[in-house]
Amino acid sequence: MLIIPDITIISTWLKNLNAIFHLSTERNTIELIYLQKVNGIANADISLIDDIMTISIYSPVKQIALPALFTEISQINSATFLAKVYLELRDNENARIVFSYSISISEGITFNQFSLCLSRFEEEALQVITELDSCDLLLNSLETSAHLTFNNLNTYH
């Protein structure tokens, strides 16, 4: 059955998937805690704005990695079906690579559609994040070296 979900319904669906999350009703978002435990991911959330549901994953990148990522971003986008990828640059903050997927929910969505979209989006984003992390382009808490190698960033060519 098609349902036009609100933040409460989405949180119920996440509970059914045994996902660990935090509901922020004032921001109309759900923070996906279980994804923040993945190496290379700083934040992940689902937000509802009007009739659009957006799933986003944020990964901080090393400043020195920006030139390589600028040249690779269109290749990454062409290699992903659901996820759209862009770089977010802000003053006084680390640059981030953002993986985003938006879907109109005005006509409704089923639990199975939600589950499939979420899992496929996560799979695509995690594949790219793993590749970027293996190339030492991402900032993470376990980082011990500032040495970067761009030699292995050829998955999307």
TrEMBL record:
<protein>
    <recommendedName>
        <fullName>Bacterial sensory transduction regulator</fullName>
    </recommendedName>
</protein>
<dbReference type="Pfam" id="PF10722">
    <property type="entry name" value="YbjN"/>
</dbReference>
<dbReference type="InterPro" id="IPR019660">
    <property type="entry name" value="Put_sensory_transdc_reg_YbjN"/>
</dbReference>
